[in-house]
């Protein structure tokens, strides 16, 4: 969809801090993170809601999310990673992952963390990236 920001990220028209990519899915850091490493996993094809995706794709989707969550558990040496399906912020199916977020998230936080840019952001992306 032309006016969908996630569709534009999926085709590379808008840059992102890419964490994982395959033919069907893309994961990248949220530019307004609620915790360090806040990640969005999307299907590259436009679906309005996760619930609109065909069954076989939902299975693959969850396997990718699981892979990324377990990667974060390993590289960040943490146990807890919260997954969240909401969907009202951007009208393109997406799943949030919040690594190490226990006790750290007050929905909607007044002050968001700085964007994953600069030297600190580069280090974080290098640590989390799976591709
Ligand atoms: Zn879209």
What does this protein look like?
The protein has 131 residues and is α+β, with helices and mostly antiparallel strands. The chain has one domain (5-128): HIT family, subunit A (2-Layer Sandwich), CATH 3.30.428.10. The protein contains 3 helices and 5 strands. It has helices at residues 5-10, 55-75, 118-128; strands at 18-21, 25-29, 39-43, 81-84, 95-99. It has a 5-stranded antiparallel β-sheet with strand order 1-2-3-5-4, covered by helices on one side. The longest helix is centred in the middle third of the chain and has 21 residues, at 55-75. It starts with a helix and ends with a helix. The mean pLDDT is 88. The structure holds zinc ion. Zinc ion (ZN) binds next to helix 1. It holds the Pfam family HIT. One of its GO terms (biological process) is nucleotide metabolic process. GO terms for molecular function: catalytic activity.
Write the SSE topology:
Layout: H1 5-10, E1 18-21, E2 25-29, E3 39-43, H2 55-75, E4 81-84, E5 95-99, H3 118-128
The protein binds zinc ion.
Zinc ion binds at residues 1, 4, 6-7, 46, 92.
Brief write-up:
With 131 residues, the protein is α+β, with helices and mostly antiparallel strands. It has helices at residues 5-10, 55-75, 118-128, and strands at residues 18-21, 25-29, 39-43, 81-84, 95-99.
